Amino acid sequence: MAKIRIEGKEYDTENLPQEAVNYANSIAFVDSELQRLDNQVKVYSASRRYYVQELKNIVEKTEEKESAE
């Protein structure tokens, strides 16, 4: 007996029309995809911060080397 929760109220899917169950499944899929995409954004953001820091390090070293010459 599967149950879904809508705005705090729990429903037994066996008592709902198939169309309602389909929408509930679609909502669950979209929620899952949103979470997956949010996780991807976090990974890409962390990667970008790393790349920016590495670029800054290289630029600073290059400037220091040029200053010493």
Q: Which bin fits the share of residues in helices?
A: over 70%
Strand order of the largest sheet: 1-2
Largest sheet geometry: 2 strands, antiparallel
The count of β-strands is 2
Number of helices: 1
Break the fold down into its secondary structure elements and pairings:
Layout: E1 3-6, E2 9-12, H1 18-68
Antiparallel strand pairs: 1-2
What does this structure look like?
By secondary structure, this protein is mainly α. The radius of gyration is 25 Å and the shape is rod-shaped. The chain has one helix at residues 18-68; strands spanning 3-6, 9-12. It starts with a strand and ends with a helix. The protein has a two-stranded antiparallel ribbon with strand order 1-2. It has one domain (3-68). A hairpin with a 2-residue loop joins strand 1 and strand 2 (9-12).
Characteristic key phrases:
single chain, 69 residues, mainly alpha, 1 helix, 2 strands, 74% helix
Quick gist of this model?
With 69 residues, the protein is mainly α. It is 74% helix and 12% strand. The protein has one domain (3-68).
